Each structure stands twice: as C-alpha cells, then as structure tokens.
Amino acid sequence: MVNTRILTTRRQPGSGRLAYHRRRRSAWPRLATIANSSTAERFGLFTFARAYTAAGALLAVVIAYLVLGAHATQTAYELDQLRAQNAQLLAEQDQLRYKDASLHTRAGIAEAAAAAGLQHSNTPKYVGYQPVALDLSAPIGPDRPQDAPLWQQALAAIVGSTARDAQAAGKADVWRRP
Amino acid sequence: MRAIGVSHSLNGRGKPRSRGPARWAAPKRIPHGRGDTTRLRVLWLLAAALLLASAVWVRLAYWQVAQHASLSDKAAQYHLRQVAQPAARGAVYDRDMNLLAVDTTVYDVTLSPTVVKPASREKVADGLSAALGMQSQDVMDLLESSQAFAYVKKRQPKEIADRIAGLDLPGVGLDPQPDRRYLRGGTPDVSLASSLLGFVNYAGEGQQGVEQRYNARLGGQSGSAMVYHDPTGRQITLSKQKLREPVDGVNLVLTLDSSIQYAAEQAIADGVKSNKAQSGSVLVMDSRTGEIAAWANYPAYDANAFTTTDPARMQDPIVSAHYEPGSVMKVVTLAGAIDQGKITPSTTIQDPGFIVVGGSVLHDWNGINNGTVTMTNVLEKSLNVGAVRAQQAEGADAFLHYLDAFGITKKSGVDVAGEVPPTLQAQWRPTELATAAFGQGVAVNMVQMCAAINVIANGGRWVQPHVVKQVGNVRPSLPAARQAVSPQTAASMTQMMESVVQRGSGNLARVQGFEQNEAGKTGTSEMPENGKYSHDHVWASYAGFLPADNPRFTMLVVVRQPDNGSSDHNEGYYVSGPIWKRIAQQIIERQRITPGAVFPSN
Question: Within 13 Å, how many C-alpha atoms sit on residue B160's CB side?
Fold first, then answer.
C-alpha cells in the first residue's frame, strides 16, 4: 500500500532535491535574481524573459536592417547622380573633342584664313634646276685648325701623314669625309 | 464536470464498467442538458474556424507557393527594369591621328503631361518653346493631352539641353542619345570623306563605307542591367542586378591624309563644275604600300545630315559603280605584251588609223593615217590600233592572264563596304578582246584600275589597296603583294608613261618641277546608253604617278559626262589632266616631295 498523501507531497513543484538541482543548473541566474524582485514579479519578467530578449534582439536586427537599407538606398541615389554627372562630363568631353577637331580641319583653317584676308596660292613656284660643277673628291670645309698640342704638331711634322691620320681617327666623328 | 465523470464510468458501448463481479443493471440514461448544446456550438464554431482558417491557408499556399513564380515576375516587372547599357562607338582617325568621326551626345526632350499640374503648364510651355524655338501653343497642346509620355523634340544639341535642364521644369525629361559627327569637307555642306566613311543611322548601325564595313568592331557590344527603380523612377543600385557589361567599340586609324583629302575634294569639285560634268572622283594611293591617301567624290553629301540627303548621293561611285577605263587600259595591254617579250617600247607598227577585227572596223581617236609608229608613240598619242596590235601579238590567253594579274578580273578587296565586282565576258570574241585592249567593253571600279596602274609604279608588284591602317591596336593583315610583271617591264612602261607626259597627251598634267619625272596616261571612254555607246557622254580619266623614278603616290581621276561643247574638250587629257595636276601639286607640298637630283657624271 502506498500512501497517496506522501505521493502528493513528493509531486509538489519547487520542493525536493531534484528541483533544487534544476534551479542550480539554470542558465540565467541573474534573471532568476531579477525574477525574485518585486518589480520583476510585477512585470512577469521571469516568465517572459526569453521572449522579451528574443523580441528585443529581433527589433534590433530589424532596425539595423532598416538603417542599412536606408543607407544603401541613399548611396544608390548618390551613385545614380554620380552616373548622371559622369555621363554629362563625358558628353561635354566629346563635344569639346569634336569642337577641337573641327577647329583644326583644313576647312576650319581655310575659313579662319579667309576671314583674316589671307589667300592660298595654287601656283607654287619652284627653283629651277641649274647644273653646278661640283668636285666631289675635294675636301669639305676649310683646313683643320691647328689646335693640337705643339708636341703633336712636331711629331706630325716629323712622321708625316701617318700621325695625322692617327690623330684624325681619334676624332672620326668630326673629321669624317665622304 | 459531470459529463467527464460519466465518460469515465462508461465503456465504449455506453455500458457501465465494473471492477467487481458482473452485475446486471439497467443502463443509466444520459440527460440532454444545456451544457451539451454549448459543447456542440463550440465544436461547430471550431469546425467553422478551422474551415475558414483552412481556406485562408489554402489560399495563402496558392498565392505563395503555386503562384510564387508568376507573382515574383510581376513584382520584378514593377520594380525592375532592364536598362540597355550602350557601348561607346569607336572614333575614326586619319593617318596623322586627326579625328574624322566622333560620337557626341544629343538629347531627346520628353514630357510627361500627366505629371505637370495645370498651374505649371504655362511655365513649362513658355520655357520649352523659348529653348526649342517652338510655338508655345504646340507645347500647351501636348500638356493638355491625356498622354502619359510625349516627345517634344528629338536630337537636340547639348547647349539646348543644358538650357532646358537649367529651367528645372516639372515633367520635362532629357533622354541622351549618341550622335555621330563628321568634320567639314572641302566644299560647303559636305562632310570630309563622306563617301569613304559612310554614316551611322539613328539605330547605331553603320551605313556605307568604312562605318558599314567595320560596324561590328566600331560599334562594340551593348550590355544590359536589371535596375531597381523607386516609384519616382530613380535608379537604385543593388547587388543583385543582372549585368552584362558593355564592350566599347575600337578606334579605327585610316590611311587617309585629311589634308590631301581636303585638297582632292576641292579640286574635283572645281573640276566637275568647270567642265559642266555630272560628277567626278579622285583616288590617291601610296605607290609602295597601297594605302589610300584620298578618296574624294563630287557631288558628295553631309554625313551629319544623312536624313535629308538624297539616297542616290550616298552611292559611292569609286567602289560601287563601274566605269570603262578607256585608254588607261593600254598601260595594262602594252605591259603584258612587253612582259611576254612580244613587243618592246621601240617596236614599230604601221598604223593607217583603223584596224579590222572580227568584221568590225576599229578606229584611232584622231581618224588619220598615223604611219609608222613605235609602241612608245602608241602610248603617247593613245592610238587604239597600236593597242589592238599589241594585244594580238600577245595572244588572247596571255592578255587575259595579265588582266587577271593586274587585278582587273576580280574585286580589288579594298576594305570598304559595297564594292562591285567587274563585269567581264565569259567568252571573249576577237572584237571584244580588241576593244578591251583600249579599255572599252571592260567595266571595272576605280579602285581596281588605280591598283592596276600602281603595278607599274611599284616595280611590277600588285599591292592590296586599303584604307584601314589600324583596328584598335592591331594592324589588319593584308594579302601578300604579288609580282604581276617583271621589274624590267615596269621600268619600260614607266619610261613610256613619262613620254606620255613629256611628249604626248599628258601635257596638261605636267607638274612644274617634275616635267622630267612624272608618268601618266589619259583615258576617254564612251558610256553605254540604251544598248550602244554614246558619242556625247564619256568618262574622262587620267592616271599617273610621281616621281616616276621613285613613286610616292599613284592617282586616278575620273570625270563623268563632261560637257565642254566639243568632244575634244571632253577628253581625259583636257578634263582630268589639270585636276590631276592640281592635286599632285598639293601632295608634293604636303609630302615635301622633291624631284630626283640629277648629278653630272664624271
């Protein structure tokens, strides 16, 4: 026989070792503390704490999403404006490029010249060809100046053309002849 | 809760349960009271609520699941718009990188009459009419219409668009459109090289000339983007746009020299007018490379105003029309005979002024007995009998071979749209061969003929005539040059053509300073009309190159139907020779060409 009274007592919530351990294992001891306070009790925080937290988090996420969305939309509008400005500038650039090209065409130059009273002559004159007797074997230009040191001049005078050629070879760029 | 108590005490059949031994007793009667009715009502209400909820759920499921795709599409159609992203068309430059064609922007002025409040209509009408030069009433009519959208004026320049934008009028929009612009040409109301360049229509497609031929490369590939719009139509850029980036067109660099082109346009216009001709054309080619430096027609058209241009003017007679080259063809005939070793420049023939071929009598232009003449004299005096005799000496097969070698029998392959193929006989009769020897009965285009004469200028090598130097950063590949005749033959022909200028029919084309160093050939051919050749209407042409000893350019001038009163004054030497000379002088100045220096030999 089992006394039903005892059973009833054992089944009462919040009493006994099991309930004690359950309370110890609670994840939010602070909330439990809050829940113990009279204000918390009044607002039923303990009962709805998780729901309130979730709702709060959701609200925060929604607000963040809206803020970001508004920011993105604003940026998109700005981007749209910048695109329009860019198109305007490109159009202006093309316009200027065309104007510049038009100014430099032969037609543009001819018009400007005509406005200035200038005329283009269509009868060019050429210098007539006259044969000139040229001695292509003759040296070009005056004799080479005596700018060599005296010892070199003396050596050249003694040795003759060999030294002169050796000297000239050193300045081939200057004294090259056809 | 008696009912519950009762349910505990009954089994499924309404019989009382008993834990003890079975005892027979009369079943208790269940009373039908007020509580049962309530219970029934609650059940009914629950059932009704469930039914309604089910209906809503089913409907929701229908819209959100079954109709998801179509509803998403509809929503996308409302917020998303596919916006074309046009590619920028490439510009066209001449050989010195001077712009010839460039895209600018014009604006379509649009109006949304339903957006404009009645109080603002007068302001909008006045503002637009003043900016666009329209009647205010015309704008007001649009505003009072019930249209949601209307064009006020299309393709307005940027200055006007800026003025309208500055007015900040409600309901007025400016829709940018690309507009191809070309530079002014050598004559009033004509754009530079219009026949060669062609134009771009409002759909952005190149028409005629280079614009058509290189349309795909110039035009690029337009892209598209799916763009979100807010209710006011403003674009919202989001990351999930489906975007295909546009690929801009490439720039073209032509071989054209805009200065020479300008001079050629002026010269041919003056030449056509002074000779009361129907039209005229000039083609200038770099002798060594085949690059075309000038491509001019008169009359031409303004590519900036193609909508108001007579379509007949848009046909390019240089490449899209045939002409019979006349005596210019004698260069090809004699070159073939010399190359075959059948004649030399000093070969003599008897020329009585006519020759009978296949039962037909063919005459010289002067109709006199020319006696004994050399082949050089034949070219100098442009004697038909001599050309026929050279062709006969050469033989039909060899003659046709040289027509082919000089590029007469097929298209030139120039990189411009609309080239017509030559019209030649499939079977040649002796008379046709004989007339072909002096350029009648052979229909070619000017590019073919200029390239044929250029063979002589270029040491016997045929080079591909072309107008495009660079497509983007790439030089287009060209067919390899081919040796049409030997360099010796080309040298002999050059001397004979020099003789034409010095002693023959090319005297009016002599350029001062280059009298001893210029090669040319005149040509006059009758136009076929109503199945026979006209004596009054001719093609007067002149082809030549300069300097003869080191050619820099080859030029062909053709004037159609000159009308100077006498047939003598309608001939190539008289009509086209002076035009050739005038343009040659300009090229000499432009390219700083000097006559070859002649030193006395020791």
Answer: 23
